Amino acid sequence: MSMFNKNPRNVQDVSRRLNQVMGPKITEDHHSAHLLLANTPPDGGYVLDIDRHDYDADLNKGPHTPDELHVALRPVLVLAQCFALMPLYGVSSPHPKHLRFQWFSIRVLYTCALVVGSITIVILSIIRTVNNGISFLSTVDFVFFGSSAIVALLFLKLATEWKQLVDEWGPAERKIIRIYGPLKKLPNQMRTMAYTVMALAFAEHVTATATHVANALPCTGGEWNWRLAEAYYHFAFRQVFSQTEVSLWIAAPLSVLNLLVTCAWNFMDLFIMVLSVALAARFKQINDKLESVKGKVMPRWFWRQTRESYNTLSCLTKRLDETLSLIVLLSFANNLYFICLQLLNSLKPLRNLWQAIYFVFSFGYLVLRTATVSLFAAHIFDESKRPVSVLFSVPSECYCTEVQRFLTQVTSDNLALTGCRFFSVTRTLMLTVSIPSINSNQ
Fold it and tell me: Model pTM?
């Protein structure tokens, strides 16, 4: 205040610019300076943090908005349960208080069946590898089914913690919605992503099956009969049917298990993508508001509210990273392994048209999915750094401690998903990982 008392002209300049920004005419006196330095708006519209009690009371007054996490993720979680992941009850309920996890339930039993089936294939793959000798190609089934078993266990662990995460996410998200409004396109964006990824995963599974059938056809002289089915299962599940004869009661569950494992493997990347989109979209709301006032004189309460909103999302990002870090690490390790595998397979001659189609489609889809999950996850980091340019453009008339604290937090805090803190998912990660992997295969 001493600055304004010593130079009355500053008060007039501040008041005049404040009038242009905030709309209603304010008389050019010391009251304008008080408004500029006030910690809360004059109309009492300041949004404070929402605790759990206020959040429940707020929900009892009205339903969730469609863009809130629990509602927007509903179709994604239902899809996950079809693949024996996220064995929760209450995912389709309009209120998160109905979420519950039960160890002794059909859904957990379904998940355990997937884990047991995958581990059985892993054991049989190890036995076959020991008998025939180890090579990079002989580890494919071991890695694929082993990682799928780990995926199922990680999502089982996540299901036990999911209600707690949603209970923390909900009040923080409701605060952002009160200030910046809902995101009407977010639910449709999540559904589109989910259906697109799983449709491509199913198409990749169908082309893999067609390739095994094409490889098996010469064994039967081109005839479609039970011998073709036997040859197909010998090609597709060598580790199983090198130990026993092909029979329907073994072959049918194996086909179902193979489909579930493929979908679960793809769902891991999808889950990272949808949660990254949901969080980055909230950062974008803050950034869009900041961009609209770039270079303008704004009161102290505006910067305080924006900083606190940003800090809310900062805490949410760190909480999400604690929950997802193991899944992120497994996702990137898996994708890197299979990209290297496909690069190695590119050196082998292709025996028929279906093999060529499968190789091009699966390799293209793998690279596209890896790039997509990397970019969506990196979008959190990108959006968290966007306020820097606006904060550097704050006019000297309204520069205050809130702006300084906000700028310090944005520049010093690295908000990003990590793989158990071994790496942070940023745009440069793809180049850092892809260049050595390509060179190693040359």
Answer: 0.85
